[in-house]
């Protein structure tokens, strides 16, 4: 229910004391005015519920679920003050570690006010990945409010209901998954059941470019900010809608949310984010994207691929999760040991769903999983995945990226194990339905009990023999560090694993391995072709690239240390077979002088020798085809 909100207009000269006497205290309400940004800072007012303790601790989160990085958002808050009901200040002391503020005489606390700096253009160290950060940009009419980076909390009061009032320019629209009640053209009121729900709902104010569509009983909304206006939400609809519809079918035609919002911020083409990367952050009923503006087809392709992953997070960890996430400690975050489930299974689903629902071929799925196996080899394969998960913030921070590689492969292997032992009649989708019935958004499992619960649900299904043990498999390959024998696991499904094989695939760059094929020339401040060994047939023969070439442009876009992620990332998302690729280079002539050249060719498939390849068997048996159909669909 929405409570009546009294609004008053006061003369500029009215004193703080008379303001407090005339203004009734809101109930656990935050107030912010987007029309009042100064030096990239917003002023936030927080009116908490009545306190009974003599002291209270106020803070912003150190970390939030889904980021797997400690960002310490309190460092962006300054001028934190506390007031009683008469407008007099209460004593506020910042903790030694800078993570919180202690408020004296908290039983008299009426209001907390503070200034919060945006994170996207800060000069502070420990840069925050943009999808998890904030951007206050009145000059360009856009405000990104990742709520965990704007609104603080009183420790111990995280489960109280919350109201949020935002004053904003009349020409901007606020998109979020929070329950919203517009008061007038310049004021919105939002409701959250508790602080956990508040910080799980990013808000973006921008021009009102939205589209929506229905999937079953769920309403899906897309809101896009495009700095040039070149990209519209409608341009993305044809790519996003079918993949969400297919995901719903994959999940059993019923989504566990009644509303879901895709919030997209597009940076100007050629400009980098401070982090140098682009991506997205998932939430329970929304996902926020910080991507680069470019061709609509390229943006749609990137959103489609990312959305395939992010949308599945409504299942795990946002619907099925452990106590470490369900009762998340924003001040002293504790990791769950089940990143294989939260990120690995989600990434597996993103790939698996597209093939099982007919959006991609079986060969494309196997190629994608082969890429993951090759990528996983750059990480330490001797660490158990539960240990990696528990140490993802510190001890094994450098290994975190493997959750999207080996984590997805482990989920695929467990899927194969279930299908083979259940004669194709029980898989991880059925298992997740069972876990969803046991737990849910408000009920968490205990970290140490998950393997037992999975084993119980498998046994209860009636599809497995009495000596079957899912727990033993999970403890061996996820709780332990035994390596998956892919040849043995895949053979019953008519799929071959080869340690090395020739594969045909589109060459987007002409460089077989970008990471190892490019170097950097610090004198010219340009990327350099490292070795002919890194060039494939398209690069060496069609384009005519050579060892030592310095890259100056890529399809007409300047290429340097600042633009490389933007330019090559956009090309990777947009390039298709038959497209023309033009590269500007500097090449030394016979006299050792650099000359300007332009190389051009049509993107095509090339044959390359690769390690760790998955292929369909040419003549599978009827039993193998039966299991293959259960695994990958028709």
Counting copies of identical and different chains, the oligomeric state is single chain
Given as residue ranges, the uncertain stretches (5+ residues, pLDDT < 50) are: 1-25
User: Strand portion, in percent?
Assistant: 25-35%
User: C-alpha Rg, in Å?
Assistant: 27 Å
**CATH class bucket of the largest domain:** Mainly Alpha
Number of helices: 17
What is the averaged pLDDT score?
A: 89
**CATH topology title of the largest domain:** Neutral Protease, domain 2
Structural class: alpha+beta
Q: Describe the biggest sheet?
A: 8 strands, mixed
Question: Please, how many domains?
Answer: 4
How many strand units? 29
Strand order of the largest sheet: 5-4-8-2-1-12-15-14
Overall geometry comes to: globular
Give the distance, in angstroms, between the N- and C-terminal Cα atoms. Answer: 48 Å
> What is the name of the CATH superfamily of the largest domain?
Neutral Protease Domain 2
CATH architecture assignment name of the largest domain: Orthogonal Bundle
**Helix content percent band:** 25-40%
């Amino acid at each position: 229910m929405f409570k009546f909100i009294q609004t008053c207009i006061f003369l500029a000269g009215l004193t703080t004391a008379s303001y407090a006497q005339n203004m009734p205290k809101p109930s656990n309400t935050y107030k912010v005015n987007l029309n009042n940004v100064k030096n990239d800072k917003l002023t936030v007012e927080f009116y908490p519920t009545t306190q009974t303790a003599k002291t209270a601790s106020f803070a912003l989160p150190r970390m939030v679920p889904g980021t797997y990085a400690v960002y310490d958002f309190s460092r962006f808050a300054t001028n934190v003050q506390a007031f009683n009901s008469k407008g007099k200040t209460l004593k506020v002391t910042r903790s030694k570690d800078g993570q919180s503020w202690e408020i004296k005489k908290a039983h008299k606390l009426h209001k907390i006010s503070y200034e919060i700096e945006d994170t996207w253009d800060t000069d502070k160290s420990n840069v925050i990945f943009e999808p998890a950060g904030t951007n206050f940009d009145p000059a360009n009419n856009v405000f990104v409010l990742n709520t965990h980076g704007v609104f603080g909390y009183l420790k111990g009061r995280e489960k109280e209901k919350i109201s949020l009032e935002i004053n904003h320019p009349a020409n901007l629209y606020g998109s979020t998954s929070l329950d919203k009640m517009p008061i007038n053209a310049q004021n919105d009121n939002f409701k959250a059941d508790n602080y956990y729900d508040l910080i799980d709902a990013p808000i973006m104010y921008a021009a009102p470019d939205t589209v929506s569509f229905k999937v079953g009983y769920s309403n899906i909304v897309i809101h896009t900010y495009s700095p040039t206006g070149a990209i519209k939400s409608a341009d993305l609809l044809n790519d996003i809608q079918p993949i969400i519809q297919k995901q719903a079918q994959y999940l059993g035609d019923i989504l566990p949310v009644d509303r879901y919002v895709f919030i997209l911020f597009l940076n100007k083409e050629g400009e980098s984010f401070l982090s140098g990367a682009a991506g997205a952050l998932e939430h329970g009923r929304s996902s926020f994207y910080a991507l680069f503006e470019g061709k609509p087809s390229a943006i749609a392709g990137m959103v489609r691929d990312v959305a395939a992953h992010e949308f599945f997070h409504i299942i795990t960890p946002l619907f099925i999760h452990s106590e470490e996430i369900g009762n998340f400690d924003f001040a002293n975050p504790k990791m769950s040991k089940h990143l294989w489930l939260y990120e690995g299974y989600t990434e597996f689903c993103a790939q698996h769903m597209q093939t099982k629902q007919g959006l991609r071929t079986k060969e494309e799925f196997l190629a994608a999983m082969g890429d993951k196996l090759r990528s996983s080899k750059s990480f330490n394969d001797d660490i158990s995945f539960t240990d990696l998960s528990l140490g993802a913030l510190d001890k094994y921070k450098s290994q975190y990226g493997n959750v999207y590689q080996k984590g997805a492969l482990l989920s695929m292997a467990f899927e194969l194990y279930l299908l083979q032992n259940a004669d194709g009649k029980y898989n991880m989708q059925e298992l997740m339905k069972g876990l969803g019935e046991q737990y849910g958004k408000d009920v968490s499992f205990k970290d140490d009990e998950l393997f037992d619960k999975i084993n119980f649900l498998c046994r209860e299904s009636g599809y497995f023999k009495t000596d079957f043990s899912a727990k033993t498999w999970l403890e061996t390959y996820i709780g332990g560090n035994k390596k998956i024998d892919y040849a043995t696991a895949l053979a019953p499904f008519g799929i071959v694993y080869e340690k090395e094989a020739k594969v045909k695939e589109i060459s987007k760059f002409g460089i077989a391995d970008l990471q190892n094929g490019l170097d950097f020339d610090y004198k010219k401040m340009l990327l350099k072709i490292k070795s002919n060994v890194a060039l494939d047939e398209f690069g060496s023969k069609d384009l005519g690239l050579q060892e030592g070439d310095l890259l100056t442009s890529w399809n007409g876009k300047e290429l340097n240390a600042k633009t490389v992620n933007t330019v090559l990332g956009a090309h990777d998302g947009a390039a298709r077979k038959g497209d023309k690729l033009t590269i500007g280079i500097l090449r030394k002539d016979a006299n050792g002088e650099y000359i300007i050249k332009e190389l051009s060719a049509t993107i095509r498939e090339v044959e390359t020798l690769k390690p760790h390849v998955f292929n369909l068997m040419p003549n599978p048996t009827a039993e193998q085809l039966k299991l293959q159909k259960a695994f990958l669909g028709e």
